[in-house]
Specification:
The complex is a heterodimer. By secondary structure, chain A is of the alpha/beta class. Chain A has 12 helices and 12 strands. The longest helix of chain A has 19 residues. The relative contact order of chain A is 0.14. The radius of gyration of chain B is 20 Å and the shape is globular. By secondary structure, chain B is mostly helical. The termini of chain B are close together. The chains are: A alpha/beta, B mainly alpha. The interface between A and B is large, with 35 and 38 residues.
Chain lengths: 333, 319
């Protein structure tokens, strides 16, 4: 293409062409960032998206142009599809990738390929069994599980039969919450775990079926339940209502703040929610990636915090914003 | 007549070119899409569906169908992971998984041919049996491969910037494609296959042992599905009992886009491979353009209906 530059009139065209060539490879203050969630249907991921857009807007105000691609698999257990998304963004030559890996093993190879292609990766929400990422931006999920366990023990006055409905196999974030929950129960010998080996699966439908099956079996014995993610929390509350055990007859502690769970908390069907800060997580992950790309040093582990929410504190301003994230402000929907 | 013939051979190529043309409309995507590295990525992403489509082509040409592929791939990936964890060599694992696939195919074919049952119903049943078995053998969870298992390198892109070297899994898939093409076009078995698919009673009256042909078709296809499950394992570097749900539909779509008729008697290896490639290109291209996942699902759906409509039109003019 070099000979074009000798012809005066074609110079601007050449400039545009070479500009296009550079786009997405490197340029001083313009980045294309792919943000890859575990799925796109849950409100949790919409909050992450809102946080990423918030970062994009703030950076734009500082003169750093960021173009976000938001793309995830439709179902949260479709490992193959998430691998393809990472690969396609790798060949698309984005400047960096923010990834919430839906399996701690299966996404290791695609991340390695991206890093080999000199595309930095920030991992968020769920851990990856690799050390090649720039930073891991997430809730301290073990702590979140411990908080849930303590709260459930308090609600039951230290005595009762408890069910843990697990989320899905291979999902590091929820496994850490489950481990934290079980760890905290060790301090309460009066609490008996009657079921801890059932999985809710990735959708509300699978979670609802699992909840119904568990309640059919243990409905008359159970006093307290912990669900470590949004779909099982919503599904379990619904299943409890079905059999007339909601409203505090069976104490229930859930995780995350989907609008349905917040309603359940207000109505007293759920006694407590352990709530993460997904808007901040999405925001911080994009910011950290940009800082790394700008050549600054980034912490390898960034904790985005958890809060225990009950009926008593749900109207406080800071908690209210956690429960009702300002999605409209950032997402055109 | 000649135009129709041209259309039936060139149809899948035209489809692929159309999709490539669509992607080329976007200048910033064009610059990265038509590079060696991206071609390699797409080939790697196609491999599982392509190998499945080889087996499915045999089955569909013989007038059958197999809905149990996705479950078989999940079961095979779990069994392979279990073998590796038990300390088996890579060769042993590959052999065991492919033989397992062959046995499952043989079972499908045996029931279909032996009891003269509809393939749709039989494989709908085995779909559940195999999916359940995969969850059972895996203990309801994913089974990670041992660290640094050589099997994982089957689809490792090595250098993501260039087309070469292609991962061994892609070469193996191409080799299998040539093998199956020769089987279909240059052997007696291949002639019988088309005869059974075109008109089963006529084939029987001409002395073709229809039951044995069917048994053979499902067994060979099963071996291929076994290999596809090894690729799935390599891709995820684990055995996943929930993997590949709905894969059978992708595979059937690839074969149909490639010009095969579900009535049997027509279909080709090259067409099916192009069909698989078209879907992978579409998926990768729409993502790089930045379209939503649902857009690509709608487009692939439309392509399938269009391909079948084209097939119908060809046939109605032919008689």
């Amino acid at each position: 293409m070099g000979h074009f530059s000798t012809v005066g009139g074609v110079k601007p065209l050449f400039a545009i062409l070479s500009g296009l060539l550079l786009l997405g490879v490197t340029s001083a203050k313009e980045y294309t960032i792919a943000v890859i969630p575990k799925g796109t249907t849950h409100e949790f991921w919409k909050s992450i998206h809102a946080g990423a857009v918030k970062a994009e807007q703030e950076l734009a105000a500082k003169g750093i142009v960021v173009k976000l691609f938001w793309k995830g698999p439709l179902r949260e257990d479709d490992r193959e599809q998430q691998i393809q998304v990472v690969e396609n963004f790798t060949t698309r030559r984005v400047s960096g990738i923010v990834l919430a890996p839906l399996d701690s093993h299966a996404l290791v190879n695609p991340v390695r390929s991206a890093v080999r292609a000199k595309i930095p990766v920030v991992v968020m929400d769920s851990d990856l069994k690799s050390d090649q990422y720039v930073s891991f931006v997430a809730t301290d999920n073990f702590l979140g599980g411990q908080i849930a366990g303590e709260q459930l023990a308090k609600l039951l006055d230290g005595h009762g039969n408890v069910i843990l409905l697990r989320y899905a196999v291979g999902s590091a974030s929820t496994e850490a919450r489950e481990a934290g929950f079980l760890d905290s129960l060790k301090k309460h010998p009066g609490i008996v775990l009657i079921s801890a080996d059932q999985y809710a699966g990735p959708t509300r439908e699978t979670a609802y079926q699992a909840s119904q099956n568990l309640l059919n079996r243990y409905g008359n014995q159970v006093n307290g339940i912990f669900c470590p993610a949004e779909p099982p929390t919503i599904a379990m509350a619904k299943a409890l209502r079905d059999i007339g055990k909601a409203g505090g007859k069976v104490k229930m502690v859930g995780f995350d703040a989907g609008s349905q769970s917040v309603n359940d908390l207000k109505n007293g069907d759920v006694q407590a929610l352990v709530v993460q800060n997904p808007v901040y997580m999405g925001y911080k992950a994009v910011l950290s990636l940009i800082e790394h790309l700008e050549g600054r040093k980034v912490e390898k582990r960034i904790d985005t915090g958890v809060k225990l929410v009950t009926q008593d504190n749900m109207e406080q301003t800071d908690i209210h914003e956690l429960l009702h994230p300002p999605l409209r402000r950032y997402l055109k929907e | 007549m000649t135009f129709r013939r041209l259309l039936s051979t060139a149809g899948p190529v035209l489809g692929l070119l159309l999709v490539l043309g669509l992607i080329a409309l976007y200048p910033e995507v064009r610059l990265v899409f038509f590079t060696g590295g991206n071609c390699k990525t797409i080939l790697v992403q196609t491999a599982i569906v392509a190998v499945g489509a080889l087996g499915m082509t045999l089955i569909i040409v013989s007038g059958g169908i197999d809905l149990s592929v996705g479950s078989m791939v999940a079961l095979g990936s779990v069994v392979a992971a279990r073998c590796l964890n038990a300390g088996w060599s890579t060769a042993g694992t590959v052999a065991a998984t492919m033989i397992l696939g062959g046995c499952v195919g043989c079972l499908n074919g045996g029931i279909i041919a032996g009891f003269r049952m509809l393939p749709f119903i039989v494989t709908l049943g085995t779909m559940g049996v195999l999916r359940g078995s995969a969850k059972w053998i895996s203990g309801k969870q994913t089974v990670p491969n041992p660290e640094n298992a050589t099997l994982g390198r089957l689809l490792d892109p090595i250098n993501p910037d260039q087309l070469m070297p292609l991962p061994p899994g892609v070469w193996a898939s191409l080799g299998l494609a040539v093998l199956i093409a020769v089987l279909m076009r240059r052997t007696v078995f291949g002639r019988y296959l088309f005869a059974v698919g075109s008109n089963e009673s006529a084939a029987r009256l001409s002395g073709v042992r229809v039951a044995w042909v069917k048994l053979g078709v499902y067994t060979v296809a099963g071996l291929l599905f076994g290999f596809a499950s090894l690729l799935q394992n390599a891709r995820l570097s684990l055995g996943d009992p929930t993997a590949a749900s709905g894969l059978e539909l992708d595979i059937i779509a690839a074969v149909v886009i490639g010009g095969a008729s579900l009535n049997g008697g027509t279909g080709s290896v090259s067409g099916s491979l192009l069909g698989a490639l078209t879907m992978a290109v579409l998926r990768s291209g729409t993502q790089q353009i930045g379209w939503e996942t649902y857009v690509q699902e709608i487009i692939i759906g439309l392509v399938i209906v269009f391909a079948v409509g084209l097939d119908k039109w060809r046939q109605s003019r032919g008689t």
